[in-house]
Amino acid sequence: MHTLGRRGLYTVLFLLMWLLPVLACNAPGRLVRPNSGFTAEDLRQTVEAMPRPATLTPAPGSTPNGSPAAILVLDQAPTPFPTAPGSLYQYETRSGDTLVALARRFGVDAGQIFSQSLLPDQGFLPAGTFLTIPDRVGQVSPAKLILPDSELVYSPTAMDFDVQGFVDSASGFLAEYREVLKDKKSLTGAQIIQRVADELSVNPRLLLAILEIRSGWVFEHPPGAGQVRYPLGFEIAGREGLFEEVRIAATQLNLAYYGWREGSFQTIHFQDGGTIRLNPTLNAGTVAVMHLFTLFSKSQQWVDDVYGPVGFAVRYRGMFGEPWMRDATIGALLPGDLAQPALELPFRPGEAWALTAGPHNAWNAGTPLGALDFAPIIAEEPCAVSYRWVTASAQGIIVRAVDNAVALDLDGDGYEGTGWVVVYYHIAEQGMVQEGAHVSLDDKLGHPSCEGGQTTGTHVHVSRKFNGEWLSADGPVPFVLSGWRAVAGERIYAGQLVKGEQVVTADPSGRSGSTIRR
């Protein structure tokens, strides 16, 4: 098993991320086949030299996600060629692209992105739209796709994937692993993978692949595995064990994935000090995997670990089959015309609650600023389990009700990774709705509390997912509750709810101005 170098640097990195507490809330197509002669060694030399990118020509006949419809030879990569100054990218939009994010990734103003189709200023761009964009980014990584977005998030492609069944059939050390978590719950290896996948909405196939590559625990029984405290090799003091290690990996994947989505994550950094500006035509799932492996590998080894004949892409396909073919079956992960269904504030009509936090992390550091916090305005102790009820924002099925989280599935198929899902957190265990329950608008889900994560007072934390992907509260599809639209502030947890000329401003103390009545 590999171990991380420069441990002090990465300890600081992860401790800083940990200080953004897990829900620390406030209270009151057709594939362009690669050059068959291009090898991992060629790519290694490319990483060293980093020539300018080729002028990229979009491939007609892409799938709705903008992903290849044919099988990619994953241990090969396309050769980048120098281009003349002033060259142009010909880019075909993918599901989840926005004009703002593309402008950031390509380093241009939105007005410099041209299309024969009318481009919306707000919302997601329709997948398959052809754009002409000036080349302003200079030297970038190869445009090699590794993983579809749908295999990064806990999406419809994993709808029929049985984590427990896979782990049992693999018969490795993971099948016999058990760990007692900090909340005193004892979980098996498969249950740990499932819990992290559920909570962070990261595809369990991906988590299993990373664990197998880093430790061999899925299919093998490595000598001394029972004494290994850091199976992935992050080695962060105080975060020993499989659960913490896998959660760190999922957090880092989300950090790059959602950063790429919004255009803020543009460069990967290696342990040995090297950096690469990412090719702006990559997809978010590929960027997330590329980033994760920089935490394990120096620049030279990274090429083999990601692209080599026994690297991530090849081993992932060996474990789970061709991901692009699964991706091609689900349609657009985030359709261009995506609109939120009607949702109501998560408490009873007539009650007054406080907006104690504006847009902040949907789950933990790495997820987008997709959550809002509400606290009941009543005379109770700061962290008492309130007698008030959190209520269903719409009709649906409770697909998860455990560890102080309730996931309400709105499309009624009983699967959290498809369609719209509303997630409520800090729900007290006592009185919490049961998994599998069919609920109507305003049905009781449980009591707001301080239970779960880290919090300074009783409240409920509410966020949304679509097809397993966390959505920003003030993003392409705004969070709207009872007609109140979320508006982000200048900093995390700040912000407002706006309805016509009415404005409610987030305040952690629940002072005047933060009160909202349904």
Key terms:
single chain, alpha+beta, Glucose Permease (Domain IIA), four-stranded antiparallel sheet, 11 helices
Q: How many helices? A: 11
Largest sheet: 9 strands, antiparallel
**Terminal Cα separation, in Å?**
55 Å
Total individual domains: 2
Radius of gyration: 23 Å
* Number of E-state strands: 21
List segments where confidence is low: pLDDT < 50 over at least 5 consecutive residues: 1-23, 26-39, 49-84
The helix fraction, in percent, is: 10-25%
Which band does the percent of strand residues land in?
15-25%
Mean pLDDT across all residues, rounded?
86
- In one word, what is the shape? globular
The structural class is alpha+beta
Q: How would you characterize the overall build of this protein?
A:
This protein is an alpha+beta fold. It folds into two domains: 31-332, no CATH class; 352-517, Glucose Permease (Domain IIA) (Distorted Sandwich), CATH 2.70.70. 23% of the residues lie in helices and 18% in strands.
Topology:
Elements: H1 7-19, H2 40-49, E1 88-92, H3 99-106, E2 130-134, H4 163-170, E3 178-180, E4 186-188, H5 189-200, H6 204-215, H7 242-262, E5 267-269, E6 275-277, H8 284-294, H9 299-307, H10 312-320, H11 323-327, E7 352-361, E8 369-376, E9 390-391, E10 396-402, E11 405-409, E12 420-425, E13 438-439, E14 444-446, E15 460-466, E16 469-470, E17 480-481, E18 484-488, E19 495-499, E20 502-505, E21 515-517
Antiparallel strand pairs: 1-2, 3-4, 5-6, 7-8, 7-21, 8-15, 9-14, 10-11, 10-13, 11-12, 12-15, 15-16, 17-18, 18-19, 19-20
Helix pairs in contact: 2-9, 4-5, 5-7, 6-10, 7-8, 8-9
